[in-house]
Amino acid sequence: MTALEKATLESRNKDASARFERYRGRNLSLDMTRGKPSPEQLDLADDLLTLVQGGDTKGEDGTDLRNYGGLAGIPEARRLFAEYLDTTPDRVIVAGNASLAVMWDTLANAMMYGMPDGDGPWKDQSPKIICPVPGYDRHFAICERLGIDMINVPMTEDGPDLEAVKALVADDASVKAIWCVPKYSNPSGEVYSDATVDALASIPTAAKDFRLLWDNAYSVHHLGEGPAPLKDIITACEKAGNPNRPLVFGSTSKITHAGAGVALIAASPVNVEDHLKKISFATIGPDKINQLRHVRFFKNMDGILAHMQKHADIVAPKFKAVDDALEARLGGTGLATWTKPKGGYFVSVDVVDGCAKEVIKRCGDAGVKITPAGATYPYGKDPHDRNIRIAPTLPSVDEIQTAMEVLTAAIEAVCTEKLLKG
Amino acid sequence: MTALEKATLESRNKDASARFERYRGRNLSLDMTRGKPSPEQLDLADDLLTLVQGGDTKGEDGTDLRNYGGLAGIPEARRLFAEYLDTTPDRVIVAGNASLAVMWDTLANAMMYGMPDGDGPWKDQSPKIICPVPGYDRHFAICERLGIDMINVPMTEDGPDLEAVKALVADDASVKAIWCVPKYSNPSGEVYSDATVDALASIPTAAKDFRLLWDNAYSVHHLGEGPAPLKDIITACEKAGNPNRPLVFGSTSKITHAGAGVALIAASPVNVEDHLKKISFATIGPDKINQLRHVRFFKNMDGILAHMQKHADIVAPKFKAVDDALEARLGGTGLATWTKPKGGYFVSVDVVDGCAKEVIKRCGDAGVKITPAGATYPYGKDPHDRNIRIAPTLPSVDEIQTAMEVLTAAIEAVCTEKLLKG
Questions:
Q1: A290 and A310 together in one domain
Q2: What CATH number is associated with residue A126?
Q3: Residue B16 sits in the same domain as residue B82
Q4: Peptide bond connecting A187 to the previous residue in cis, omega within 30 degrees of 0
Q5: Residue B40 maps to a domain
Q6: Residue A131's closest CA among A80, A188, A93, A198?
Q7: Interface of B with A in 101-140 (CB under 8 A)
Q8: pTM of the model
Q9: Which of B166, B168, B246, B324 is the most buried (most CB within 10 A)?
């Protein structure tokens, strides 16, 4: 380091620390940890609450939706969400209020009973799942809980590093699946390219029951430019001769009401039949009345798209506030790089190696909660201690601006300190 | 058999067979298989559908119930259903739309991770569960699916045969639980006596993590005399020094809407904490909006009781139609005995040994669907082939009268045939 570089770092550190201390004195209480919709976003769907009333509770086929039954979901919901997931109604199951539960059920049942095409319960096969990193903490928590080993592979701007994936799946039949958030990836925002989709559909795998855990959580969750195109994985896998490879997950949690939406799984008829058999021991059917509310509210895919444009109008300024603050405070400093997503729920910031934990700790001291360091990596271990996930949807623009002042000051202070220590 | 007895049987058989044939010619299509509420019962709760509207979605503590969170259920629902289950709110979790799912989660997680006080995952301990018979087919299906062995014990009018239970649990630590439907038992209608409750709470068990799977599905589901008293199992177990023994399940499936209600689990604080940890991997929270609908609809326990009186008014005549038909056609014949429940969803009929399967087959031939023989026993095997479960709630009184004519004719024809063959 030259004397000039050192002096610059020292000056930046002093400035940033002073800024940070001023905010620390303000007893802030801001939360940027979770990808929750804001009240204004939730308001957009309030009309659905009263769309099913007494005397009007029958489905299109005459079924009384208040009673038991309907394990796969109501036909009109399967049709609507088939359009949403780019597939056919017979390939869609509409479930309860959380796609996380569907993913848990899928993997817990795979551990206990295996998957079609496979050699029995995964628990007897030392199963491993590939995890593009950074990724979604709740995916990782399911694997860790179930005793499924996780193997990190890096993300590229087109999706997971395909050479790394190919090498892992080629010879090892215990590598059973890969987690994918193919559009506006959590947390780094990438959209998988057509070439990535085709490769994942066709890569030869030693495991006969290899699965793409395709969590299309943000299919229509754009920031103003409309949903990014994403090649249909179900058709791609069929064409590649691997029809049972994809398990597509989705939900309306970030479309209607986060706690009172409907969840989805789409897959080949073989997988659908297998999933229905597995869940038939645990439930007689999902809340079909809530499915009817959703169908009546959206009517069709155009309804969903028009609705998501309203979300974009609310959310986009928040993402802009995050990016503006990062540019204004850290642009050109070399202390951080960050994503500029076109959709989804997160901005991912990489700071100087070895600094993320300390940055997040200091933010906490100043009353700004940031997702714990490491959360975006399997086992909570970011090998470089550099990734920070920002969730801008819940706070207001004002709150984001304040929180980002704290975060950027903390980043600048901690990273310059680190660089000065060498 | 005397000549007179033989002649009487032959005459009865001829009459019954002729009656049966007349009905068989009528192309009936009647379904007495499942304990589903009727449309009239479901109508009683229709007002709840519109009790939560836009602008009015906050809980009593100010939480926006449209958003994520609230793993244990909303406080006001925990309070209401604590009253319903005769316990305290901290001992209650209010879940999604099906108690079956809660029971599945409980046992699947016990298999994978064990239970408080125990020695680890049940799957490593050759677990066995005691099943009072006849009982509920879906309980048995969960056990069979999870690989938990089932051991039959007979029911008495006060509950399970306690001497049989005591002998099974005394020395064998692999006997992990007993299924109980303590009020208006499914299908035979018994209400557990106080002495049975106290005994189950206090019996010494070799398994340190022995559990009472207390499916109080019909807590308030009486037929006109008000809910039968049932001693509180949670307090009884606490007093007996076994606070973690009971796991109480319940739901509003047969109170509000069968497919869109809320499910409940009540247990000791240790069990509640354990259950919440287990489900935290699978869900961020239940549908809290639907919980709010339920709280607003009932307001308090008096609201639930008043509501269930309306159910009784609808359901009681249907049970009477079943009993009237059985008395009229089979009373004093010695061909069948049956229950006269004060609540619940079923009438249980025992016919001459070795006849149930054939009776149900013949009813099917005549267009009257009856729950398959053996369904009320573990592994679908009724050792005496004599139990028939009748579910009178869904059909109309007219339909029940017709179905019962077919069923009683089939019983009389098949049983007299059997007795004549000797």
A1: no
A2: 3.40.640.10
A3: no
A4: yes
A5: no
A6: A188
A7: 101, 104-105, 108, 111-112
A8: 0.97
A9: B246
